Amino acid sequence: MIIGVPKEIKNNENRVALTPAGVSEMKKHGHAVYVQATAGLGSGFSDEEYANAGAVVLATIEEVYAIAEMIIKVKEPIASEYPLIKKDQLLFTYFHFASSEPLTHAMLEKGAVCLAYETVEKADRSLPLLVPMSEVAGRMAIQQGAKYLEKPLKGRGILLGGVPGVPPAKVLVLGGGIVGTQAAKMAAGLGAQVTIMDLSLPRLRYLDDIMPANVSTEMSNHYNITKAIATADLIVGAVLIPGAKAPHLITRDMLKLMRPGTVVVDVAVDQGGCIETCTPTTHENPTFIIDDIVHYCVANMPGAVPYTSTLALTNATLPYAVQLANKGWEKACNENEELKKGLNIANGKILYKGVAEAWNLPF
Ligand code: NAD
Known about the structure:
It is a single chain. The protein has helices at about 20-30, 45-55, 60-65, 100-110, 130-150, 180-190, 200-210, 220-230, 305-335, 335-340, 355-360, and strands at about 1-5, 30-35, 55-60, 70, 90-95, 115, 170-175, 195-200, 215-220, 235, 265, 285-290, 295, 345, 350. The protein is an alpha/beta fold. The strands form two sheets. Strands 3-2-1-4-5-6-14-15 form an eight-stranded mixed beta sheet, with helices on both faces. It has a seven-stranded mixed beta sheet with strand order 9-8-7-10-11-13-12, sandwiched between helices. The structure holds nicotinamide-adenine-dinucleotide.
């Protein structure tokens, strides 16, 4: 198959969908790979590395779309890319169709085959192409939290790990899934005193088993949260209710219970946030302050660490991309239920119920 890797053009997107290692794997399976010049630069991969791995480097995005049977990307195509997409061209990328009606209509009209990373699903209902980004965001939440706890950045001025003779900071993690687990591990590793709250007792049992001694678990309820936020230095929001908005576990009037300079990192902001006062921010301007509480609410946290995020993402996407290239999308989806769940649009039809429901379109 002929595979095209365009450079991401969405604002501040430095990830790339295929690394030189991925090119070499595709070549091993007999596929041709065309990469747009400088596509990998933001993630630390030069054109030369791609060429050495066997890719043909093309100067423009137009050339990449024109030659490719399958386009592998990171973010959904933006409006300037729509005219480049050909009928029956396979696009393997994050789409998030349920949050963009114009994108949904554009892909239907173009007759593209859209396989969305975010809906590829395993039999246990886990989402293997979303997990790596949650891992990155969870670990990063503590780095960012530690930074904004510093006094010049308006935090309480406390070191997460304390020092001998001085107690460590208290970190409260709301939600013990992928993000919460990674955040707790990082905070614990730095020596903080960590509490993870979740609604699932089996999950709390598991976390209690695997976490070090400076992490404790507690049932998530209003009473326990109200008590914990009064002494927490850093709060990480990591709750997810699949297919729904995040519940506001900390409401606006609860901010006054917290100490000035407390930092909240609401990773769940992309689902509305679990702290009521959180609204999405960007890497250029990541925080704002309400009632002396520092809010960090960046909606695309992994975008700030493209070196790590690209490798984490492509480790997960490459095996699926190889199957698509080897078999073509129809055979690959027929033989692999996980990939089939990723099929959102093909032959001018919506094939994913949630997308059809979002825009009241036939399914
Ligand atoms: P996950 O499904 O692995 O974990 C969510 C956890 O929340 C589950 O363990 C669940 O039991 C728990 N939960 C549900 N309701 C709860 C409640 N009321 N109190 C406490 N816990 C509750 O999800 P995840 O992969 O960890 O993702 C968490 C959030 O982070 C999602 O909204 C995801 O979209 C978001 N995310 C954001 C970024 C970013 O850049 N901001 C990056 C990756 C993921």
